[in-house]
Amino acid sequence: MKLTFKTIAHNTPEYRELVDLRDRVLRQPLGLAFTEAELAAEVNQIHMAAYSEGQLVACLSYVVIDDNTLKMRQVAVEPEMQRQGIGQQLVSNAEIYAVDNGYCRIELHARDTAAQFYLDLGYEIIGHPFIEVTIPHFKMVKDWCTVIGH
Predict the structure, then answer these.
(1) Distance between CA 133 and CA 30 in Å, rounded?
(2) pLDDT for 29-52, tens place per residue?
């Protein structure tokens, strides 16, 4: 599937579309909802979207941790589009973005049901499972810092 990728500015109509996707895929199944304070706190995050034929199909956000490290969060793919390689393409594009912008380490908290997806993409589990937003997660990392001399 041919995808186009775009970074999305906070609090734009496109951002609100990302929030809707994240809410439907990640929050509503857990009985959770975003608060305006949570969304306002995303102002300094990097929001990325994947489109197919002009329609939003997937998204993720990055939090800048330090000069080398980004934390990937809120990865969501339209339910009817899952298991078609869209998430893999989105994460790969996001990794290219990270390297192109001087970052060499990506951290994330993967739901236990998504851990294998990230393992297949070269991420490593760090530590033991923990509970976040009411469900088990793993801290995972992909690190190129020593390879590219950071």
Answers:
(1) 8
(2) 999 999 999 999 999 999 999 999
Burial of 39 (0-12, 13-18, 19+ CB in 10 A): middle
Residue 73 token pair: 């969060």
Residue spans of beta strands (DSSP E) within 3-104: 4-8, 46-52, 55-64, 69-77
pTM assigned to the model: 0.93
pLDDT in tens, 41-88: 999 999 999 999 999 999 999 999 999 999 999 999 999 999 999 999
Spatial neighbors of 77 by CB under 8 A, at least 6 apart, are: 25, 57, 58, 86, 87, 90
| Number of Cα atoms under 13 Å in the Cβ half of residue 91 | 25
- Token pair of 18, please? 């990302």
How far apart (Å, rounded) are the C-alpha atoms in residues 118 and 31?
25
Nearest CA-CA partner of 46 in 57, 61, 60, 58: 61
- CA 142 – CA 136 distance, rounded (Å): 20
* DSSP label at residue 53: T
